[in-house]
Each structure stands twice: as C-alpha cells, then as structure tokens.
C-alpha cells in the first residue's frame, strides 16, 4: 500500500490491491468531521472521491503527486 498527499492541500491518493481486477488506486479528500470537536484543532475525515484505474493491468505499488501538481 502507498499513500501520498498533494502538497499544501487536503487531497491524497492511495494504492492497494484488493483483487487481480482492482488495482486500488483511489483519490481522497479530507473533509471537516461532523463529530463533536472539543479541542482547538479541527478534526477531518477521509472522503472517497473517485477511483483512478488508468488502464493498469498489474499491481501499482507506489503513488506520488508531481511536485508541480
């Protein structure tokens, strides 16, 4: 499994292998939590945005954002 955050943002991408037909490349966004927050630091939860299959036929071991986006 691999994870990478987009620089200075709330977006991140993950990769994993769920089956031979699902390479598991997923794009996520951190959204403010609806849970009660008693602290001063905001709480965020991951929200699945969409799958990025990209025509890969085998496992994707590492995902990274380009430094320039």
Structure description:
The protein contains no helices and four strands. By secondary structure, it is an all-beta fold. It has one domain. The protein has a four-stranded antiparallel sheet, with no helix packed on it. It starts with a strand and ends in an 18-residue tail after the last strand.
Give the arrangement of secondary structure elements.
Layout: E1 2-5, E2 11-15, E3 26-32, E4 44-51
Antiparallel strand pairs: 1-2, 2-3, 3-4
The biggest sheet amounts to:
4 strands, antiparallel
Calculate the mean pLDDT score and round it: 78
Uncertain segments are none
Q: Nearest-angstrom radius of gyration?
A: 14 Å
| Class based on secondary structure composition and strand pairing | mainly beta
Distance between the termini: 21 Å
Order of helices and strands: EEEE
Shape: elongated
Strand content: 25-35%
Number of domains: 1
Give the neighbour order of strands across the main sheet.
Answer: 1-2-3-4
Q: Fraction of residues in helices?
A: under 10%
Quaternary structure state of the chains depicted = single chain
Q: How many extended strands?
A: 4
Number of discrete helical segments: 0
């Amino acid at each position: 499994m691999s994870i990478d955050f987009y620089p200075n943002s709330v977006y991140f991408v993950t990769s994993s292998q769920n089956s031979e037909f699902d390479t598991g490349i997923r794009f996520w966004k951190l959204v403010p939590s609806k849970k009660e927050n008693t602290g001063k630091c905001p709480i965020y939860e991951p929200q699945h945005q969409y799958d990025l299959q990209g025509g890969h036929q085998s496992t994707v071991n590492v995902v990274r954002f380009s430094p320039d986006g």
